[in-house]
Amino acid sequence: MSERSYVHGYSESEAKRLSVQAETLNELLYGNTVYPLGSLVLEAGCGVGAQTSIIATNSPGARIISIDISGESLAAARKKAIAGKNTGAEHLKCDIFSIPFAECSFDHIFVCFVLEHLHDPREALVCLLRLLKPGGTMTVIEGDHGSTFFYPDSQEAKRTIQCLIDLQAAAGGDALLGRRLYPLVTSAGVKDVVVSPRTMYVDSSDPALVEAFTKGTFTAMVEGAGEEAVSSGMIEQDAWDAGIRGLYRTAEDDGTFCYTFFKATGKKGLGF
After folding, report:
1. Which class does domain 3-267 fall in?
2. CA 143/CA 193 separation, integer angstroms
3. Which residues of 68-91 are buried (b: 16+ CB within 10 A; e: fewer)?
4. Integer Cα distance of 256 and 150 in angstroms
5. What is the pairing mode between strands 63-68 and 40-44?
6. N or C: more exposed end of the chain, with fewer CB within 10 A?
């Protein structure tokens, strides 16, 4: 994965959004991911360390090596680890397709919101599986922008989401990857794969969740693609603005918002 293939960019606002996202999704996605004392864990594509701090807190006795292609993101991740006193986390700049560790080095591998940005996610999983010890576990989490449903309905809002999907496809990624996570992970050789859908539903009965997820996570993510979507000629500025208004409209008192994530867990076969 190159830095240019990350369609959301590396701005300060995107780093903030990622932190809000991780904190908001903690219980839904990461709560049951706990690694035993003494485990060596590889986090592939750690970004700004938003998930790292959570899995490190959940597994204080594990040693976590987090890698990313972006030096800027890694600097932010190191800073976050220091602030959170997550002394079990280490950070390394490298490409996911050429990680400088010997085969069978890790007890567990964790990959979250990474494969959707890669031109060849299956090959990435194959490369990661080589680094896993026989019997070791792999956890992969992805979203699927096509799983988004909301009220009031808005064709303009759907168009802005489609722009983000199309921009990611043009960059070599797949924003709809969640729906094919099972065949993707199994085709890479991971055994005993179980995929569980994790649905985030939001309405005004929980105003904090409306702010954190509907506005601060999803709409902020789509909104960040506006400049590129308009400049590429994909959509007119007025149409884009109408779509963003439609997404914010779902955050009002009578609005609802729903999005599904997919979490796959599996292991490396003993005879691999």
Report:
1. alpha beta
2. 17
3. bbbeebbebbbebbeeeebebbeb
4. 5
5. parallel
6. C
Whole-number Cα distances in Å, 2 to 12, 29, 38, 71: 19, 26, 32, 12
Helix 155-170 / helix 237-249 crossing angle, nearest 10 deg = 110
Q: What's the pLDDT tens digit per position in 122-169? A: 999 999 999 999 999 999 999 999 999 999 999 999 999 999 999 999
Q: Tens of pLDDT along 95-122?
A: 999 999 999 999 999 999 999 999 999 9
Q: What is the dihedral of CA 262, 80, 96, 92, to 10 degrees?
A: -160
- Give the residue among 160, 162, 165, 167 at the shortest CA–CA distance from 237: 160
Q: Which residues touch 166 (CB under 8 Å, ≥6 apart)?
A: 234
pLDDT of 3 over the 60 cut: no
Tokens 């293939």 correspond to 5
pLDDT tens for each residue of 205-244: 999 999 999 999 999 999 999 999 999 999 999 999 999 9
CA-to-CA separations, 4 to 9, 48, 121, 171, 173, in angstroms, rounded: 8, 16, 16, 8, 11
Residue 160 to residue 166: CA distance in whole angstroms: 10
> In this structure, what token pair is assigned to residue 139?
């956890």
Query: Under a CB-based contact definition with an 8 Å cutoff, are residues 97 and 125 in contact?
Result: no
- Put residue 172 in one of left, alpha, beta given phi > 0 → left and psi -120 to 50 → alpha: left
